[in-house]
Design a protein that fits this description.
By secondary structure, the protein is an alpha+beta fold. 38% of the residues lie in helices and 21% in strands. The structure holds adenosine monophosphate. The site of adenosine monophosphate has 18 residues, from β6, β10, β11 and α11.
Length: 435
């Protein structure tokens, strides 16, 4: 068999059900805050990422999937989503100079060392608010994400936040940071020795224990912020207090990509285990468009890892809202008579695919005796079975069996009013599920 590439992952049912659910909640929450969907290509000119993410970052210097196309152009599979969105914004006459609030979802590619929660193709959802420097937009974004993670059941997700200043105030901090680490150069890991020249801020979040142990007494960036950055930061934190979002100011929080200014933040959780505790990260990128040769457009955004979020959703089985249902028709006549009802039920369930919906498992449209059906239903993990045979058909009934509680109720079937019958069946199942 041809093997899957290292660091890549197939997602098949039933796991993909969680993906659908996450995407659905994302769509619902993000659009209700006024963020519209953007879809950009997964492949871009290499230069876009070199200029935006930064030549000296790990992502650009070590991790990109880059090749030449048949026209000898250097192209790259996107390692992140923001650069493409800002490129699309800047090249769209409709949006230029206006406020664009948008979200995206899709695969990203980084040639990293695969481990739990780290892949070479992984999915991110992201939000961007392009064209505003208001700290209230930073606050709205953090508030929205806090709500989103709670809604999908990750209630221990918390915010780590910092301000990393701007091109005005950051150079003085960088100088002092380099001076601080120069005296400890010999104790730094190989990567960090290099970062002293190329990207000193990244010394603050090196995951190597020998480097993190050197952080005692490291200069605090908050003390270097200019007035404008200080005011921005204070307003944001005041908003978060007012909005009752719990956060932790972490002066050592920096981000892996070069384009950030002022606000940086991460949503972290203790439940992921291992070294990867970040569900996602974001911040302001007021100078990114200038790095691309255009006028500066103040903006703020966030990217969340889908696989890591799904890993946590898997542990929260109880809060998932797809109810697996098994259809058990005991003879061909009943199966054929009830077929329109079963299909109407499936249609209704997808039309009403809000947060709670039915998902039909193992339905091969075969009649069997009840023992065989119930054994298949058990193996499939179904929570409910819809059962009918000659007896139910004769009296126009359908049994709804709660397979967990081992209780059965009967419902009247009106084949001339399928909508009403379907409504009654769903209502009964949701009711049972909540009781
Ligand atoms: P970043 O763009 O590096 O800030 O990443 C934002 C989020 O995407 C991280 O917090 C992770 O949740 C996720 N992520 C980044 N890289 C990977 C990867 N290689 N595999 C899986 N998830 C990732």
């Amino acid at each position: 068999m041809i093997q899957l590439l290292r660091g890549m992952k197939d997602i098949l049912p039933p796991e993909s059900g969680k993906w659908e659910e996450l995407q659905h909640v994302a769509e619902e929450v993000f659009s209700s805050f006024g963020y519209g969907l953007s879809i950009t290509p997964v492949v871009e000119k290499t230069e876009l990422f070199v200029r935006s993410v930064g030549e000296d970052t790990d992502v650009v210097s070590k991790e990109m999937y880059t090749c030449k196309d048949r026209g000898d152009e250097s192209i790259t599979l996107r390692p992140e989503g923001t650069a493409s969105i800002i490129r699309a914004y800047l090249s769209s006459p409709e949006w230029k100079s206006k406020l664009l609030k948008t979200w995206y979802w899709g695969p990203m590619f980084r040639y990293e060392r695969p481990q739990k929660g780290r892949y070479r193709q992984f999915f991110q959802f992201g939000l961007e608010a392009i064209g505003t420097d208001s700290p209230h937009v930073d606050a709205e974004l953090i508030y929205l994400l806090n709500h989103f993670y709670k809604k999908i059941g990750i209630d221990d997700a918390r915010v780590e936040i910092n301000s990393i200043g701007c091109p005005e105030c950051r150079p003085a901090y960088k100088n002092d940071l380099v001076a601080f680490f120069m005296s400890k150069k010999e104790e730094l890991c190989g990567d960090c020795k290099g970062r002293l020249d190329t990207n000193p801020l990244r010394l603050l979040d090196c995951k190597n224990p020998s480097c993190s142990s050197l952080l005692v007494g490291v200069p605090n960036i908050q003390k270097y912020l200019c007035n404008t950055c200080t005011t921005h930061n204070e307003r944001l934190l005041k908003d978060l207090d007012k909005l009752k979002v719990v956060y932790n100011v972490n002066p050592n929080l920096v981000r892996g990509l070069d384009y950030y200014t002022r606000t940086v933040f991460e949503f972290v959780t203790d439940k992921l285990g291992g070294r990867q505790n970040a569900l996602g990260g974001g911040g302001r990128y007021d100078v990114l468009s200038a790095q691309l040769g255009e006028k500066a457009v103040p903006s703020v955004g966030y990217a969340g890892g889908v696989e890591r979020t799904i890993m946590l959703m898997s542990e929260l089985e109880g809060s998932l809202n797809k109810i697996p249902v098994y259809v058990a028709m005991m003879d061909d006549e009943t199966l054929e008579t009830y077929l329109p009802l079963i299909l109407e039920l499936k249609k209704y369930s997808s039309e009403h695919n809000k947060i709670k919906s039915l998902v039909f498992v193992e339905d091969d449209f075969k009649s069997r005796d009840i023992k065989k059906h119930l054994s298949r239903a058990d193996k499939s993990g179904a929570k409910f079975a819809l059962i009918a045979g000659a007896y139910e058909l004769r009296d126009g009934l359908l049994s709804i069996k709660d397979l967990t509680k081992k209780q059965e109720t009967k419902i009247k079937v009106d084949l001339n009013d399928l909508k009403k019958t379907v409504h009654d069946i769903c209502g009964r199942i949701f009711e049972e599920e909540n009781s």
